[in-house]
Specification:
Strand content: 25-35%
InterPro entries: ADH-like_C (IPR013149), ADH-like_N (IPR013154), ER (IPR020843), GroES-like_sf (IPR011032), NAD(P)-bd_dom_sf (IPR036291)
Distance between the termini: 13 Å
GO molecular function, one term: NADPH binding
Number of strands: 16
CATH superfamily of the largest domain: Medium-chain alcohol dehydrogenases, catalytic domain
Number of domains: 2
Radius of gyration: 20 Å
Largest sheet: 7 strands, mixed
Keywords: NADP, Oxidoreductase
Number of helices: 12
CATH class of the largest domain: Alpha Beta
Protein name: Zinc-dependent alcohol dehydrogenase family protein
Amino acid sequence: MKQVIFHQTGFPSEVLQLEEAPMPQPKPHEVRIKVTARNINPSDIMFVRGMYGITPKLPSSAGFEAAGVVDASDESNSIPVGTRVIFTAIGTWKEYVCIPAALVIPTPQGMTDEVACQAFVNPLTAFGMIETSGLKEGDWLLITAGASAFGKLAIQMAHQKGIKVACTVRRDDQKELLQSIGADLVINTEKEKLQKVIAEQTGEGVSVVFDAVGGVLGAKAIASLRTGGKMMVFGLLSLENIPLNSGLLIFKNLKVEGFWLTTYMESLSPEERKTVFKTVFTYLLSNKVKVDVQDSFPLVQFKEALEAYEKGGRNGKVLLVSK
């Protein structure tokens, strides 16, 4: 089988390579999955660079999230051959992957592989952050990098709950798109002063910030919080830490906390996890929440896929697919 792997950490374009490998054989409690679609997430890039919360055991494949079809079942046949599935694993940029049957989620009927392969990380992160944020109907939420895949999902889910959403972009042509899916206020930080616009439009500031950027924009987002507000940090797209204003935190009684999907899912009981999956998948199947695809490439064209991923102005995910 073919797999995309790296023998040392670094920029994906420099360290990832296509190799042939033996067909993996599942253990008794595992299923083997023919992977049909994978999406490229920022966490995939950070992992290859050695900058993610999970340290790669080299050599390693890239990718955490995918969809496929079971081609070898576990010993109890709990997931029959031919079942379409959604799964996460360390290293999904392969033609075949073996993982424990207990970790596989059957793909809901009517959900395409293009949607299924991105139905886990971003939708569950957006749902989990909204659920744990304490936001109520009528509260203001600020999302940095609003045009990202996560941003668009969080906008739509928050809008469903009557939460007012402000978000940041860097291009004017993204404003109309985000407003059409539920954003109440879209701020181009290349042209507008974030704190000034937030103060004028919300009065006291926003109740919660979801920050994926960090750096100077993260600091400006914190300054846009109302007294008693909270920032939830879940990404670092700028690769720069947030410069914190201690006085602002003290006198406005602000909180800054991290959010990682892995930790959130581990905190849930099995029944709670089932409810979360059902709710998120229902959103996606009903089109109340939509995900976008910018382009698809065969696995062997991963270099071209990475180039497309890095291009500015994307409004959808870049996928690696297998026939």
